[in-house]
Design brief:
The chain is of the alpha+beta class and 170 residues long. It has helices at residues 51-67, 90-105, 118-121, 154-163; strands at 9-17, 27-35, 43-44, 76-79, 108-111, 128-130, 145-148.
């Protein structure tokens, strides 16, 4: 994922603090560093980095944790407000990387985004589901509408009842 996003190297650094007494626990700390190019200085998580790099780092950690689970059922990442604080170039680039991760590790990745980002990520999705507000005064959403992909994608079956909860049956 990291090289596909055009980055050079990512590394996890683990350190621990030995307890001062037998009653105290060992404490572990994980630090992340990454490089954009071989010549660039390594960035640390606390450094100022662009939002796309943080999205990649967080997603890489989540995907690594989920891909280590032996049972593929329930391996799901939901990224809410996907595309927020990303520019028009990075939105599809990050979506492309996420699609490759989903395919390679058999993960389900849901990108919840504003409709302005939908055309930018559509070609990187197996299904595109629109959920629209009825009006500015109505809190409930309309039933989901599949605009691309299979007619009844799994995500609609999984989340469909939550999208229409509280709505009277017609």
């Amino acid at each position: 994922m990291w090289t596909r996003a055009g980055r050079h190297q990512i590394a996890l650094h683990l350190s621990h603090t030995a307890p001062a007494s037998p009653e105290e626990p060992v404490t572990w700390q994980m630090d992340i560093t990454w490089q954009a190019t071989p010549e660039a200085a390594a960035r640390r998580y606390g450094d100022k980095a662009n939002t796309a790099e943080y999205v990649l780092v967080h997603t890489l950690l989540a995907a690594a944790a989920l891909s280590s689970i032996t049972n593929p059922n329930g391996r799901l990442i939901v990224i809410d407000e996907f595309g927020q604080n990303l520019d028009m170039v990075n939105i599809p680039a990050v979506a492309d990387v996420l699609k490759q991760i989903a395919d390679q590790y058999r993960l389900t990745i849901i990108l919840a985004c504003q409709d302005v980002a939908a055309p930018l990520i559509a070609r990187h999705c197996d299904a595109l589901v629109e959920v629209q507000h009825v009006s500015d005064r109505e809190a409930l959403n309309r039933p989901p509408h599949v605009t691309a992909g299979p007619r009844d994608p799994e995500v609609v079956r999984l989340l469909g009842p939550a999208w229409t909860a509280g709505r009277p049956a017609l």
